[in-house]
Amino acid sequence: MTLKINSVAPDFKAKTSEGDISFHEWLGDSWGVLFSHPKDFTPVCTTELGSLASMKQEFDKRNVKVIGLSVDKVDDHIKWLDDIKDVTGTKPNYPIIADEKLEIAKLYNMLEGDAGVESMGRTAVDNQTVRTVFIIRPDKRIGLFLTYPMATGRNFNEILRAIDSMQLTVKHKVATPANWNKGEDVIIVPAVNDDDAKKKFPDGWDSPKPYIRIVPQPKD
Predict the structure, then answer these.
(1) What is residue 111's predicted lDDT score, i.e. its pLDDT?
(2) Whole-prediction pTM value?
(3) Which residues form the domain of 197?
(4) Whether residue 149 sits in one domain with residue 180
Protein backbone atom coordinates (compact mmCIF):
# COMPACT_ATOMS: atom_id res chain seq x y z
CA MET A 1 0.00 0.00 0.00
CA THR A 2 1.33 3.44 -0.92
CA LEU A 3 1.18 5.84 2.01
CA LYS A 4 0.02 9.41 1.61
CA ILE A 5 -1.27 12.23 3.80
CA ASN A 6 -4.37 11.03 5.71
CA SER A 7 -3.39 7.36 5.32
CA VAL A 8 -3.55 5.42 8.58
CA ALA A 9 0.01 5.11 9.89
CA PRO A 10 0.69 1.35 9.84
CA ASP A 11 0.76 -0.27 13.25
CA PHE A 12 3.60 -2.60 14.24
CA LYS A 13 5.33 -4.28 17.16
CA ALA A 14 9.05 -3.68 17.57
CA LYS A 15 12.07 -3.82 19.84
CA THR A 16 13.53 -0.43 20.76
CA SER A 17 16.39 0.98 22.78
CA GLU A 18 13.84 1.42 25.61
CA GLY A 19 12.07 -1.94 25.36
CA ASP A 20 9.34 -3.56 23.28
CA ILE A 21 6.45 -1.44 21.97
CA SER A 22 3.23 -1.74 20.01
CA PHE A 23 3.26 1.47 17.99
CA HIS A 24 -0.37 2.65 18.11
CA GLU A 25 -0.64 1.69 21.77
CA TRP A 26 2.61 3.56 22.50
CA LEU A 27 1.28 6.66 20.75
CA GLY A 28 -1.94 6.67 22.78
CA ASP A 29 -3.73 10.01 22.36
CA SER A 30 -0.56 11.90 21.50
CA TRP A 31 0.78 13.26 18.26
CA GLY A 32 3.84 11.41 17.04
CA VAL A 33 7.07 11.99 15.15
CA LEU A 34 8.63 8.89 13.60
CA PHE A 35 11.98 9.69 12.01
CA SER A 36 14.14 7.11 10.31
CA HIS A 37 17.84 6.55 9.65
CA PRO A 38 19.60 4.26 7.16
CA LYS A 39 22.20 2.95 9.61
CA ASP A 40 23.73 3.48 13.06
CA PHE A 41 27.09 5.24 13.43
CA THR A 42 26.56 7.53 10.43
CA PRO A 43 27.72 11.16 10.71
CA VAL A 44 24.66 13.23 9.74
CA CYS A 45 22.27 10.98 11.66
CA THR A 46 24.45 11.27 14.76
CA THR A 47 23.99 15.05 14.74
CA GLU A 48 20.24 14.70 14.09
CA LEU A 49 19.56 12.35 16.98
CA GLY A 50 21.42 14.64 19.37
CA SER A 51 19.71 17.75 18.04
CA LEU A 52 16.28 16.25 18.51
CA ALA A 53 17.17 15.11 22.03
CA SER A 54 18.10 18.69 22.95
CA MET A 55 14.68 19.87 21.70
CA LYS A 56 12.55 17.11 23.19
CA GLN A 57 10.97 19.43 25.77
CA GLU A 58 9.50 21.47 22.91
CA PHE A 59 7.86 18.35 21.50
CA ASP A 60 6.64 17.33 24.98
CA LYS A 61 4.95 20.75 25.40
CA ARG A 62 2.97 20.06 22.23
CA ASN A 63 1.90 16.56 23.33
CA VAL A 64 4.15 14.98 20.69
CA LYS A 65 5.91 11.66 21.27
CA VAL A 66 9.20 11.21 19.42
CA ILE A 67 10.58 7.89 18.22
CA GLY A 68 13.52 7.07 15.96
CA LEU A 69 14.04 4.12 13.64
CA SER A 70 17.31 2.72 12.36
CA VAL A 71 17.98 -0.34 10.24
CA ASP A 72 20.18 -2.02 12.86
CA LYS A 73 19.80 -4.00 16.09
CA VAL A 74 19.13 -2.77 19.63
CA ASP A 75 22.67 -3.45 20.88
CA ASP A 76 24.08 -1.19 18.18
CA HIS A 77 21.54 1.52 19.03
CA ILE A 78 22.58 1.49 22.68
CA LYS A 79 26.28 1.73 21.78
CA TRP A 80 25.49 4.59 19.39
CA LEU A 81 23.79 6.60 22.15
CA ASP A 82 27.13 7.25 23.86
CA ASP A 83 28.68 8.45 20.60
CA ILE A 84 25.76 10.80 20.08
CA LYS A 85 26.27 12.28 23.55
CA ASP A 86 30.00 12.68 22.94
CA VAL A 87 29.41 14.49 19.64
CA THR A 88 26.36 16.63 20.47
CA GLY A 89 26.39 16.88 24.25
CA THR A 90 22.93 15.32 24.54
CA LYS A 91 22.03 11.64 24.83
CA PRO A 92 18.79 10.67 23.08
CA ASN A 93 15.95 10.48 25.59
CA TYR A 94 13.41 8.75 23.37
CA PRO A 95 13.20 5.20 21.97
CA ILE A 96 14.92 4.11 18.77
CA ILE A 97 13.32 1.23 16.90
CA ALA A 98 15.52 -1.68 15.82
CA ASP A 99 14.42 -2.55 12.30
CA GLU A 100 17.08 -5.16 11.58
CA LYS A 101 14.66 -7.26 9.46
CA LEU A 102 13.71 -4.18 7.40
CA GLU A 103 10.04 -4.84 8.09
CA ILE A 104 9.03 -1.38 9.25
CA ALA A 105 11.04 0.40 6.55
CA LYS A 106 9.09 -1.65 3.99
CA LEU A 107 5.78 -1.14 5.81
CA TYR A 108 6.31 2.63 5.56
CA ASN A 109 7.34 2.46 1.88
CA MET A 110 10.93 3.50 2.56
CA LEU A 111 12.41 0.29 1.07
CA GLU A 112 11.23 -1.90 -1.77
CA GLY A 113 9.68 -5.25 -0.95
CA ASP A 114 12.65 -7.09 -2.50
CA ALA A 115 15.25 -5.26 -0.40
CA GLY A 116 16.00 -8.39 1.60
CA VAL A 117 15.09 -9.51 5.09
CA GLU A 118 18.00 -8.34 7.25
CA SER A 119 20.22 -5.33 7.74
CA MET A 120 23.41 -7.40 8.03
CA GLY A 121 25.70 -6.64 5.10
CA ARG A 122 23.72 -3.63 3.94
CA THR A 123 25.41 -0.22 3.86
CA ALA A 124 23.88 3.18 4.57
CA VAL A 125 23.80 3.78 0.80
CA ASP A 126 21.75 0.60 0.37
CA ASN A 127 19.26 2.06 2.86
CA GLN A 128 19.49 5.69 1.78
CA THR A 129 15.72 6.03 1.27
CA VAL A 130 15.20 5.34 4.99
CA ARG A 131 15.37 9.07 5.70
CA THR A 132 11.72 10.04 6.15
CA VAL A 133 10.08 12.01 8.97
CA PHE A 134 6.42 11.15 9.56
CA ILE A 135 4.17 13.38 11.66
CA ILE A 136 1.25 11.30 12.92
CA ARG A 137 -1.93 12.84 14.31
CA PRO A 138 -3.80 11.50 17.37
CA ASP A 139 -6.26 9.79 15.00
CA LYS A 140 -3.25 7.66 13.88
CA ARG A 141 -3.29 9.18 10.39
CA ILE A 142 -0.26 10.67 8.65
CA GLY A 143 -0.35 14.46 8.71
CA LEU A 144 2.96 15.11 6.97
CA PHE A 145 6.03 13.31 5.68
CA LEU A 146 9.37 14.65 4.48
CA THR A 147 12.21 12.60 3.00
CA TYR A 148 15.76 13.96 3.09
CA PRO A 149 18.89 12.85 1.24
CA MET A 150 21.63 11.35 3.44
CA ALA A 151 23.92 14.37 3.11
CA THR A 152 21.30 16.91 4.26
CA GLY A 153 20.66 17.12 7.98
CA ARG A 154 17.06 17.60 9.00
CA ASN A 155 15.73 20.87 10.40
CA PHE A 156 13.70 19.98 13.48
CA ASN A 157 12.62 23.61 13.97
CA GLU A 158 10.71 23.17 10.71
CA ILE A 159 9.10 20.00 12.08
CA LEU A 160 7.97 21.95 15.16
CA ARG A 161 6.67 24.78 12.95
CA ALA A 162 4.64 22.29 10.92
CA ILE A 163 3.22 20.72 14.09
CA ASP A 164 2.22 24.16 15.41
CA SER A 165 0.40 24.82 12.13
CA MET A 166 -1.34 21.44 12.07
CA GLN A 167 -2.48 21.75 15.68
CA LEU A 168 -3.90 25.22 14.99
CA THR A 169 -5.86 23.81 12.06
CA VAL A 170 -7.38 21.09 14.23
CA LYS A 171 -8.31 23.46 17.05
CA HIS A 172 -9.27 26.68 15.28
CA LYS A 173 -10.01 25.84 11.60
CA VAL A 174 -7.23 28.08 10.33
CA ALA A 175 -4.39 27.53 7.88
CA THR A 176 -0.94 29.11 7.88
CA PRO A 177 0.63 31.04 4.98
CA ALA A 178 4.08 30.54 3.47
CA ASN A 179 6.98 31.03 5.91
CA TRP A 180 4.55 31.43 8.82
CA ASN A 181 5.93 31.37 12.36
CA LYS A 182 4.04 30.94 15.59
CA GLY A 183 2.25 34.15 16.62
CA GLU A 184 1.86 35.52 13.08
CA ASP A 185 -1.40 36.03 11.18
CA VAL A 186 -3.26 32.99 9.85
CA ILE A 187 -5.91 32.25 7.21
CA ILE A 188 -9.46 31.02 7.82
CA VAL A 189 -9.82 27.69 6.00
CA PRO A 190 -12.18 27.65 2.98
CA ALA A 191 -14.33 24.96 4.63
CA VAL A 192 -15.57 27.61 7.12
CA ASN A 193 -18.22 29.76 5.40
CA ASP A 194 -18.53 33.49 6.10
CA ASP A 195 -21.47 33.10 8.49
CA ASP A 196 -19.60 30.61 10.66
CA ALA A 197 -16.41 32.67 10.35
CA LYS A 198 -18.22 35.72 11.79
CA LYS A 199 -19.12 33.67 14.86
CA LYS A 200 -15.58 32.36 15.31
CA PHE A 201 -13.88 35.65 14.43
CA PRO A 202 -16.26 38.46 15.47
CA ASP A 203 -13.63 41.15 14.91
CA GLY A 204 -13.67 40.35 11.21
CA TRP A 205 -10.80 39.70 8.83
CA ASP A 206 -8.70 41.25 6.09
CA SER A 207 -9.50 40.03 2.58
CA PRO A 208 -6.94 40.93 -0.10
CA LYS A 209 -8.92 38.57 -2.36
CA PRO A 210 -12.45 37.19 -1.82
CA TYR A 211 -11.06 33.70 -1.18
CA ILE A 212 -8.43 34.83 1.37
CA ARG A 213 -9.49 35.77 4.91
CA ILE A 214 -6.62 36.78 7.20
CA VAL A 215 -6.96 36.99 10.99
CA PRO A 216 -4.57 37.19 13.96
CA GLN A 217 -3.53 33.80 15.27
CA PRO A 218 -6.15 32.61 17.77
CA LYS A 219 -5.05 32.27 21.35
CA ASP A 220 -4.84 28.72 22.73
Answers:
(1) 87
(2) 0.93
(3) 173-215
(4) no
